[in-house]
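Progress against Task 2.4 (sequence-to-structure conversion) is shown through the following example record, which the project officer requested during the mid-term review.
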Amino acid sequence: LADTLNGILISGGDILRHDNGNEKVQHIMATGGIIPSDLFEEIVVPFLSRPELHGKPLILSEVGRIQGEEQVIMRATQHTGHPTKLVILLTLTEDEVWRRFEASQASHDRGERADDNKNVLQTRLDKFRDKVVPVLDFYRAQNLLVEIDGSLPPEQVTQEIFNCLLACANK
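Structure tokens generated for the chain above:
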């Protein structure tokens, strides 16, 4: 997606791991915790202001999804010249999340990360229900949210994303 759009894919984890000198952030991440919104804002605005991002479309993954972050990311993207145009939610059942986690563990395709374990994943799923689901209503009210079935084959998910981007561009 990023290559096709000549853009840059950035995950929330990329942004937070980039600030690896911040021990508080690293501890929160390693234990599956949620970074407080004020700390998130201190990190995300400078990150999105980096010169190599200027003028490029940004595809942000897992950014602005926690209650409090949505306002931060809207301000940060606007302030840094990357206004938010679309929020895509790939939906999965919890059973599918666990199936994919087990497959990932078996294939060792994510390297050695302290936050890749069952307890951290369960914590994140619990926090998703509590902290993320309410944010979806915010994006829905802004007419930014599009939901795509993430259990579809990857090629079909990609096509659905492109269809949404094309529809957004033609508005």
